[in-house]
Amino acid sequence: MKQDPICKKEIEEDTSFQKEYDGQTYYFCSSECLKTFNEMKKSVIRLKRSLDEKKRVSFGKLNKDVIKPGICTLCGACAASCESIAIEDKRPKIVGPCTSCGVCYNQCPRTMTTEEELVGKLRFAYSAKSLLDRHEGQDGGVVTALLAYGLEEGLIDCAVVTTQSKDQPWKPVAIIAEDRAQVLESSGSMYSHSMTMEQLMQAIQQGMRSIAFVGPSCNIDAVHKMQRSPYGFLHLFMRANVLRLGLFCMDTFSYEGIREFVENHGMRLADIEAMKIRKGKFEFEQAGQISRFSLSEFDEYRSSSCKFCTDMAAENSDISFGGVGTPDGYTTVLARSSIGYEIFNEAVENGFLEARPLEDYEMDRVLNLARMKKVQMYSVNRRSKKT
Ligand SMILES: Cc1cc2nc3c(=O)[nH]c(=O)nc-3n(C[C@H](O)[C@H](O)[C@H](O)COP(=O)(O)OP(=O)(O)OC[C@H]3O[C@@H](n4cnc5c(N)ncnc54)[C@H](O)[C@@H]3O)c2cc1C
Ligand code: SF4
Ligand code: SF4
Ligand code: SF4
């Protein structure tokens, strides 16, 4: 006796309602059940074909990103959508051929696959560069050039930025910059936490009405929350407009840790001209020479909060900026809010910046890094050293 896979009735094998599928014969009690089976298969095939090339991955990726790290909820959606997957011993297992169609990975509730899930809402993505005379920033100097434009046009009264301490080289100190010289001086990145919020509060208390605020995702989140939360400083934030300029961010390290590391390697922070993190390496430039170290060597100095942070792209900002994606000497820009989009494009039209649309393959690099940040909570020790 066989079972009709649709209505589950027991039936004899000599029924004329039969169907060969994937090397197996299925038996049905009636033409209705056979019809349902045929239609069901066709709809699954249509779904699989609708995925584009980039989304086609194998079950192996679902295993690596979800099942092995232990974040599978056993919802069974993967098994429900593919007969090559079965839930066995309390985990999804591959029990048949995998065509790498990508359906199981893309519909699993634990994966992040869309642009919005990975980097938040945005209007437009650019690769851009400062056109200010003799100005180089951390990447394309775009943050600084935009601030210079905002100040010059009277769009902002001041900017909360971060510069180096006068006494301790490379120690971040947040300041309220009110002119071009001060924003130019604050160009470049320091890879330790900066206490930006105190300066923002001071600027509001000093009566500044339009303030640009620069900081990584967690600092942007603090501003975003204060602008909305009825429990704290909402009344203060009602006095000022704050333009949130977010920096992409994967990690920060303790200042003392960076100093110790540098000194242990025969250098002095006072002699370091530039610091950069790229492609899994921490780079220190001294007298034109670049020393590169694997980021894993800095694990002990990494701020503990960064291990649990999942927002690489400063999703709550008006515009966000990063080095990943575009070529050296350029900044990736994600224009998010209408005010962010307007100001950025005005700065381009007025000759402060040059910009072009970000190419798809460049955006893919941004999305890959963002994905790494999103999943790191589950796999802190598995961070790839390549990106
Ligand atoms: C801690 C940190 C980690 C980062 N990690 C990544 C990363 O993993 N991937 C990536 O693509 N990009 C990362 N970035 C962003 C990148 O380094 C550049 O800041 C960004 O590309 C803008 O470059 P720019 O040349 O346009 O900016 P610039 O014109 O050089 O201006 C940089 C601005 O950043 C501000 N700033 C510098 N250090 C700090 C700080 N510690 N806290 C708050 N504000 C600061 C300065 O005040 C200045 O206004 C990180 C930045 C920081 C500060
Ligand atoms: S769809 Fe994802 S969460 Fe659901 S059972 Fe499959 S692997 Fe687990
Ligand atoms: S064939 Fe099945 S297991 Fe393989 S990717 Fe597609 S849905 Fe996943
Ligand atoms: S990784 Fe997250 S928590 Fe750490 S500094 Fe960057 S934005 Fe803040």
Automatic annotation (TrEMBL):
The lineage of its organism: Archaea, Methanobacteriati, Methanobacteriota, Stenosarchaea group, Methanomicrobia. Pfam families: FrhB_FdhB_C (PF04432), FrhB_FdhB_N (PF04422), YHS (PF04945). Residues 63-92 form the 4Fe-4S ferredoxin-type domain. It comes from Methanohalophilus mahii (strain ATCC 35705 / DSM 5219 / SLP). InterPro entries: 4Fe4S_Fe-S-bd, 4Fe4S_Fe_S_CS, Co_F420_Hydgase/DH_bsu_N, FRHB/FDHB/HCAR-like, FrhB_FdhB_C, TRASH_dom, YHS_dom. The keyword Transmembrane does not apply. GO terms for molecular function: iron-sulfur cluster binding; metal ion binding; oxidoreductase activity, acting on CH or CH2 groups, with an iron-sulfur protein as acceptor. This is Coenzyme F420 hydrogenase/dehydrogenase beta subunit domain protein. Its cofactor is FAD. Coiled coil: none annotated. It comes from the Archaea.
